[in-house]
Structures are given as structure tokens and as C-alpha cells.
Specification:
Elements: E1 4-5, E2 10-13, H1 21-26, E3 31-34, H2 47-57, E4 60-63, H3 73-85, E5 90-93, H4 98-112, H5 114-123, H6 132-137, E6 148-155, H7 159-171, E7 177-180, E8 185-187, H8 192-196, E9 206-208, H9 209-212, E10 218-220, E11 224-228, E12 233-236, E13 241-249, E14 254-255, H10 263-266, E15 272-273, H11 281-290, E16 294-300, H12 310-324, E17 331-337, H13 349-358, E18 361-365, E19 367-373, E20 378-384, E21 390-396, E22 399-401, E23 406-407, H14 410-413, E24 439-441, H15 454-473, E25 485-492, E26 495-501, H16 523-539
Parallel strand pairs: 2-5, 3-4, 3-5, 6-7, 6-13, 7-10, 13-24, 15-22, 16-17, 16-22, 17-18
Antiparallel strand pairs: 1-2, 8-9, 11-12, 12-13, 14-23, 19-20, 20-21, 25-26
Helix pairs in contact: 3-4, 4-5, 7-15, 11-12
Length: 558
């Protein structure tokens, strides 16, 4: 190895081999930075190969690939951050060592000055005089300058964002990933329906966010204010900018409570509840237990919404409790669905209709909740009639479970990433943005036609990971998403209709029908939902363990 010392913190060299890792340990090095793009020349070792050898020897590793003629501010920021974060001393290498020395000089010039860094580089055998002008201007004030940079920026630390970060690190540990999310806690939201049915405790559905961020991922505890994909960066709520090589946008969905007049003022009291909020799901169960008679309303807004079966799950679990307590004849249940059908995939409707009849549910299709008056116990609906006109009608209630209208977050819908409907515009198979090749999206904010469920995000995360890394490597994307989503419809305590389907309503069952026939109520499906899925979520999906969802990377994307 031709190792050239710049100072006590850093040395540079030409290309190293995996076999050099243990020698570097013997020489006292603690970290390696590779500045070579993969595939720069025939027979070149990949960064992943060097990364694995480095980790095996006990060295930290960072890959910051650059082309000598186009070193940008992002590359300089990445190098500076690596030098701050990595244990010292560091060995940085490229084909000859020049790029590594140049990156160090450009990252240090704002604080040390051009003359000092030029002299240090020259003493190591690298004449960087041609960069003097740039080195002298490196510290100039620029309010558009990025404050941080990364290989992959993940926006959103919900199920989709965490799972994507974990799946990326499973495939390439050397990635520098920043995850942006202001929340201090992470919620297993599919559990809130079970909280509303008295099956789960609310505290079992949340954990501190710090406990679920994948190890090795830097967490920025703030919100994104703007996407600037033309500049490969985002603007944070505090004005800082983060530059990225690749972006994974998983910001979730906005629950638009304010669209329903009077709802926010009365939610959580006056018999008004929703399982779509952690703090009101327990109130659902309280109302269900205490209701002895009267009218119970359950609502579903226009699509898209996350977990389209959740409004019905609340209805069925409530009806089951009243049925078991002998109150079902004393309680009038109404389901007001803004859509035209009970469930969008017809194969599951017959089983659901059996429970509609069992619980004496009055079905009201084309009926959209527009206002709630909690003090008067009245709800106002807009209903489409046969001639195409819309009429309003008011229904009194003793209890109402509301599913709020849902839209893309404001900073998404107003961004260059959005399609006309406000969702992030991605190809439905690859999950790559249609206009920005270094942007991927998954989860509820992605502009795909699949059901917006945690199960969909679980399937999407490894596909995004495979395809994103392929783009980084300059390869064709190998994985395709089939639209899989799952909706375990809790039709009664102890039984579930396990709806699993993809694009176009195609049935995509995980298990053969002799194990679980998803079109029929199943006790085994209940066990899966109540006992198996929570640990699969916490210890599998969020940890990059892709049980039953590893993508078939041999398939060609059409």
C-alpha cells in the first residue's frame, strides 16, 4: 500500500484490497473512506467488497464516490461529515489518492485556509494548486449551501420509512442514511382497531422512536418543509438543507379532521370517537361497553384512506360485543360509506355480508359525513341520489365512530414530486419517481393504486431497497411490486376475513386455502392478527427481516 499521511487524522492512498484491511488495523487506522465509484474500470473491487472486509477487520467504512471533474458541494459535505463522525485516524482512497486528497482539502479550506491545506496536501505528494481559487472561495457565505448530506435521505419514520431504511442497510451496510421525522414515538397503527375492540392495550402499540431507528441511521428530529428535487435536497423546518444522492419519500398520509365541520371540537367526547387516533381508540371501547341501546353510526370517507377496512373493523367488533351481550336488537347500527360498495374486492363481500345481517347493520352507500354536532348528538351527511343530485340529511346518534378524510401531506402535495392528485408520482411497479430517477416512494404517500396498509409497506420496502441500490450502481432495476396489500377484517372476536390482494383486485393469498381461506372467517387468521403480526412488525419488518416478502430479483421489470 502506498499510504501518504496528511496529518494525524487522515492519510490517503491509491486503491486498496480487502486483504489490506488487517494491515491497516496493525498500522493503527480506525476507518476507511472510499472515493471511487463502482465500475470505474474493469476488474475494480466494489465498495461493498471493501466494506465487508473492513467490517470484518473491525474498521468503520464510508463510501463517498466522486468523479474528479465534478466534485460538488454535496460530496464535500459528505466527506466533512464522515471526518467528524468516523474514528480516527482515517484512510481515504481512490484510484490514485488525488480525489481523496482533494475532498479533504475542500472540506477543510473553510476553517484552515487555502494555503495551509495546499501545503499539507503537497507534503503528502499531491499538488492541488489548480484548485486554489475554489479553495479560497470555499468558506464564502451562501444561504443556499447544504448543512448536511447523505447517500440516502429517508423522509418519514413510519412503518414504510423505517422498513425501507432497514432493508437498505441489510443489503449495503456502508450506506450513509439520514432519516427525517419530528415524532418522538413510533406507533403500530394496525393495533388501534384492536384497542377500540378491547383486545389490545393502547400502550402496547407505541414505542420510543429512538428504539426503532435502525442502528447506523442518523435521525434528524425535525420536519421537512420543502422538497427540492432539482437540487437533490430538502429544506427542513428550521431552514437547514440536506443534500442526498438518493431520496426515499415515505411521509405518510394526512388525516384531514378539519374537513368535517365540528369534528375536532368534539372528538373524544359526546359519544364521538375514532380508532384512527391513539388517544381516542380507548374511548371507542368505553363507548361500546357502555352503550345499552340507541343508534351507533360508523362512517367511511371517499378513498383513498389508509387501511380501508378499518371503519368496518370498528363496526364488526362493536357489533360482536353487543351481540354477545344480548343488546344487538336494542342498538340500531348504520354504516355510512361514501363509496358505492361494501368492499372493493368482490370475493370478500359474501363473508362480510353475513356479518352485516348478523349485526342488523343498515348500509348507506354514497353517504359522506360532512358535519358533527357533539352537544346535540347529530351528524350531517351528504348523500348522492339516483338523479345525480346531492341531498343532506341529519342523523341523531348515541355513538359515532368516524374515519376522517385523508389527503397527502401539504408539503408533499405542493412539491415538484406530486402528481395532479397530490400524491408522489411513482411508477407502480418499480416505485421509482417518474421524473426524478434518484427518488423513490413507498407507503401511504406514494401515488400507487394499491391499498394503503402496513402490509403493503412491508412488501414495498425490500423492493425499494433492491431498486434504489441498482440505480446507485448503474444497473437495471430488478424488482417489481405487484400491488400487494392485506386487510385483516376482524368480523368478530376470534375470527377474521383475511383480505389479501394486489393491483386490479387480484387475490394474492400468502397461504394456501387449506391453511387460511381468506374469503371465509378464520380463527387462524385471528391468531395471525392478534398474536403473530405485532412481533413480526416490531422484530421483523422494522429490523429488515423480510419474512415472506423478499422480492424475486430475477424477474424483469416490464
Amino acid at each position: 500500500m502506498d499510504i501518504r499521511r496528511i496529518n494525524d487524522s487522515i492519510s490517503v492512498s491509491p486503491q486498496i484490497t480487502p486483504q489490506d484491511a488487517h494491515e491497516l488495523i496493525r498500522l493503527g487506522f480506525k476507518s476507511i473512506i472510499s472515493n471511487r465509484p463502482d465500475g470505474e474500470e474493469a476488474g475494480q473491487l466494489t465498495a461493498q467488497a471493501v466494506c465487508m472486509a473492513a467490517e470484518g477487520a473491525g474498521l468503520e467504512f464510508r463510501h463517498i464516490p466522486v468523479v474528479a471533474s465534478s466534485i460538488g458541494d454535496r460530496d464535500i459535505t459528505l466527506f466533512a461529515e464522515a471526518m467528524k463522525q468516523l474514528p480516527k485516524p482515517v484512510l481515504a482512497f481512490c484510484r490514485s489518492g488525488t480525489r481523496a486528497a482533494t475532498l479533504w482539502a475542500l472540506s477543510e479550506a473553510p476553517t484552515r485556509g487555502a494555503d495551509i491545506v495546499l501545503a499539507a496536501a503537497k507534503s503528502a505528494g499531491y499538488d492541488l494548486e489548480r484548485f486554489r481559487a475554489r479553495l479560497q472561495s470555499a468558506g464564502a457565505a451562501n444561504d443556499q449551501k447544504v448543512s448536511s448530506a447523505c447517500d440516502v435521505l429517508v423522509v418519514g419514520a413510519g412503518a414504510a420509512g423505517i422498513a425501507a431504511a432497514a432493508s437498505l442497510l441489510k443489503r449495503r451496510k456502508c450506506l450513509n442514511i439520514i432519516l427525517v421525522d419530528p415524532s418522538e414515538r413510533h406507533a403500530y397503527q394496525p393495533g388501534w382497531t384492536m384497542v377500540g375492540g378491547g383486545i389490545f392495550k393502547p400502550e402496547d402499540t407505541v414505542r420510543p422512536m429512538a428504539d426503532v431507528i435502525p442502528r447506523g441511521v442518523k435521525w434528524e428530529r425535525t420536519a421537512v418543509a420543502e422538497f427540492e428535487p432539482d437540487h437533490d435536497r430538502v429544506v427542513l423546518a428550521d431552514g437547514r438543507r440536506i443534500n442526498y444522492r438518493m431520496l426515499v419519500a415515505a411521509p405518510g398520509i394526512k388525516l384531514n379532521w378539519a374537513e368535517i365541520e365540528g369534528l375536532e371540537e368534539t372528538l373524544g367526547r359526546n359519544g364521538v370517537t375514532s380508532n384512527y387516533r391513539y388517544d381516542s381508540a380507548p374511548y371507542t371501547w368505553s363507548l361500546v361497553q357502555n352503550l345499552k341501546g340507541g343508534r351507533a353510526l360508523f362512517t367511511q370517507p371517499p378513498m383513498p384512506i389508509k387501511c380501508a377496512g378499518a371503519p368496518q373493523k370498528a363496526l364488526y367488533l362493536s357489533g360482536d360485543h353487543w351481540f354477545r351481550k344480548g343488546r344487538i336488537s336494542d342498538i340500531s347500527i348504520e354504516f355510512h360509506n361514501a363509496g358505492p360498495v361494501l368492499f372493493g374486492v368482490k370475493e370478500y363481500v359474501p363473508a362480510l355480508m353475513e356479518y352485516v345481517r348478523k349485526y342488523h347493520v343498515g348500509l348507506n352507500f354514497g353517504s359522506r359525513l360532512i358535519a358533527v354536532d357533539g352537544s346535540r348528538k347529530e351528524a350531517r351527511f351528504a348523500r348522492a341520489v339516483a338523479d345525480g343530485s346531492v341531498v343532506e340529511e341529519t342523523r341523531g346518534f348515541d355513538m359515532i365512530h368516524v374515519c376522517p378524510p385523508q389527503v397527502a401531506p401539504d408539503f408533499v402535495s405542493a412539491s415538484p414530486l406530486a402528481n395532479q392528485a397530490g400524491w408522489i408520482e411513482v411508477d407502480e411497479a418499480s416505485l421509482q419517481h417518474k421524473r426524478f430517477a434518484n427518488v423513490f416512494s413507498l407507503g401511504d404517500a406514494a401515488g400507487t393504486s394499491n391499498a394503503k396498509t402496513a402490509a403493503a409497506a412491508r412488501k414495498q420496502a425490500p423492493i425499494v431497497a433492491e431498486n434504489l441500490i441498482a440505480v446507485l450502481d448503474g444497473r437495471a432495476m430488478p424488482a417489481a411490486y405487484d400491488g400487494y396489500g392485506s386487510c385483516p377484517l376482524t368480523v368478530e372476536r376470534g375470527k377474521i376475513v383475511l383480505a389479501e390482494f394486489g393491483y386490479g383486485g387480484k387475490l394474492l393469498p400468502t397461504f394456501p386455502t387449506w391453511i387460511i381461506d381468506g374469503t371465509k372467517p378464520s380463527s387462524l387468521a385471528w391468531y395471525l392478527k392478534s398474536e403473530a403480526l405485532p412481533p413480526i412488525y416490531w422484530h421483523g419488518m422494522l429490523k429488515g427481516r423480510e419474512w415472506l416478502v423478499s422480492p424475486d430479483v430475477k424477474r424483469e421489470v416490464a
